[in-house]
Records
---
Amino acid sequence: MLVGRPVTTVRRMRLGMELRRLREQARVSQNAAAEAIDGSDTKISRVEAGKTGLNRLELTALLDLYGVTDERFRSGLVELNRTSRQRGWWQQRSDILAPKLQELIELESTASQIFEYEAIVIPGLFQTKEYAQAIISGFPPPHSVPVEQAVQIRLERQKLIERDDAPRIICVLDEAVLHRQVGTPEVMADQLRKLIAINNPPHLSIQVIPYSAGAHAGADGSFRLFSYPTPADMDICFLEQKESRVFIEEEAGLEPYRTAAEHLRTQALSSPDSMKLIAGLAAEFDSRG
């Protein structure tokens, strides 16, 4: 478990973890790996931790040393290494984006699947402009970023779900999220209708845990679970706090969150029944407007 560690790129972290697995599987020491690329054991350690990268020749030398012969797998790692050096739009706006937000966008943008359980508010990827304005105005962003600019950044993040290669998204909401009025009744009604509009199982599935479910697997707080594809498939759990963030990558730490995600989906209403509940609440907010 890592608290507040910068994620340079998720791709680099995935590559590093896979290279470590391959080295240990081949029973090669860090010193021997360092000699193969004319480097130091410190560099190998940093590469495996995702803190620094490799050029193509160095990566090829390590794959040869580790006995990796599968050409498709090798090509996948070479491509992963190449793309790890690419800068996303969020990294080009580091002057206004807090590190925590840059890391979240990096996690979202490179995942093949996202599971999110939210107990308090509508997730940022699904918020309407007006709902986002009300949320951000009530809790202004750090570093003196104007509210309107912060809202536009949140809307920019939402382009992720419109991409041809968008990740599969599974979102479970506590029913309290739907009742908590953020902004005016009209803002809430529009926000709830947006949830209905974007719900598109199995690509984007929204489920609600009703009050009648009682105690459930998400009672100890919200979390996000990101999954990444081969090569170097891995999961990362992201826990967000006011001034810090926690990344969980180790299998022992991830397993309770995977189990919680499974239980939450089982305890929640089906997606069609969730939409009926959301539609009813939207009508209630309409009647208050």
---
Amino acid sequence: MRLCVFEATNHAGPGVVIGEEVADLRAAAPHLSSNPVDILAAGAAGAETVERALKSAPRYPLSKVKLRAPVGRPGKILGIGLNYRDHAKETGREPPTTQMWFNKQATCLHGPFDPVLMPAVSTALDYEVELVVVIGKHGRHVPRERAHEIIGGYMTGCDYSVRDWQRATQTMIMGKGFDTHGPVGPWITTTDEAGDVGNLSLKCWVNGELRQNGNTGDMIFDVAAQIEHLTKAFALEPGDLLFTGTPAGVGAAFTPPKFVKVGDKVRVEVERLGVIEAMIAQETAQTRIG
């Protein structure tokens, strides 16, 4: 199942993408939450509600709707650094023996086709195609063999990174959490449809030039290992997002660096999970309070 949040004329809500159409779930089941994560967290009951709704839900052409980020405001957005061997190599560093985590701010969450902002304070904006895990159940001290039990689904994501701000501090947090720099989507692919995510291609194009071309099989720490490690320290909860690392080909690794510029089009794809795409637009440093 591919759960989305869509916007049509004078209407927005959760849907299921079926082929080239979007089924409007709340038209058939008005009590459903507008956040697909709540459907995932309900487990079998949520899936059954969706299946009943699909029998009578009206459908819209996918080409006629706007897709939003398919998750509500996450409690946590976490990312792992240097989790692909080839990416570690291109940075001149040894593959890590310990998982290196950082957080992206909740306000970085962004729609799959919305413009991504070039910061007013930097031009060192870089791209990172990533498999994103959507947590569907509460989990603490989860062993790797049970990690799949708390996964609700998967998305394509791009971990935009402001490299000069990232390198300015050891935590990397400031460079990883700028507003709009966490686009995800285009929908949540549930685990039954996604299948084995241990062998998926990941690709990123900038203005049609293929920059990244990797495979999730090259992760140093796979998804199960990530969940086992994180839940030793704190709980993962429904709606939390895990950015699971990026392969080689980031702009910072080129000589000279190939950072994106205003007007560039960045397209990222994870096999079986879909494509997201953004134009880079200039941020205006406008004070906003309240």
---
Amino acid sequence: MRLVSLSLSVASLCAVAATHTQIARAQDMPAAAVLETQVAGGVDAGTGGAVDRLIRAELDGLGTVRTSSGVALDLGEVQLALGCVGETPECLGPVAAELSVALLVIPHLDQSGAEQMLTIALFDRRDGSIHRVVRRAQSRPELLDAIEGQLRELFGLPAAVDPEPGPIPTLPPPPSDPDLVPGITLMVVGAIGLGVGGAMGALHLDAQSEFEAARPSTMAEADAAADALSRSETFAITADVLFAVGGVALAGGLVWLLAEVLSAGGEADSATDTDTDEVTLRPGRGGYALQLEWGTR
């Protein structure tokens, strides 16, 4: 219990120290206010809102300034209230002082023919400097994708470097799949043959029963009994043939499937092993038997 309490205390101290470090680092960064994007005529107003949100998010991610919270203010309205209109150090200085920040980020969105032009200005109240970075794009997604690069250039940060793709792993060739189609086809043919043979056998029994139950007293009844006997013999021969063919096809399909599966499994073994997978059909008592041998020697 003491060890658990000590571990929790150490973890709490580390979390508090990390929090104080982050707070101190944030306080050392200059405060900045992101003003509302000035949108020219012909530009979708929704694009200006997207630019405002993305600039604020990118600045938070860069970690170079501490953005002031709250809704983005319109530069023209603030300057009218202060009695000085224009993007000059004399007019921007009072705006920064009123907002209690050292930096002002001022976006402008214009339409130039088929292109959209985004200008981001950075005013530094500490030295009165104004820097601008311009990007042109053919579409809104392209314009928004360029904002991170603009801010990096504006604050003197290196361009983002895409991670180099790692080497493409070389995969060993997959083992060859067993060819199961012929075996399955043989088994299906065999099953069909056995099914039809069973039907022929049932017809043979019906015809035989009809012949045995016949008590002919006229020539017509005698002919009918003879016809039943002929049909019974025909059905019996057909059933025997179908049972034989179906049984052989079913056994052959099973042998094929077993041989293919065992041979495919043998390919995955080490090359130094000698495979001895064998499937043989050998005569036995009253018929044939399947003999399977597998393993390595």
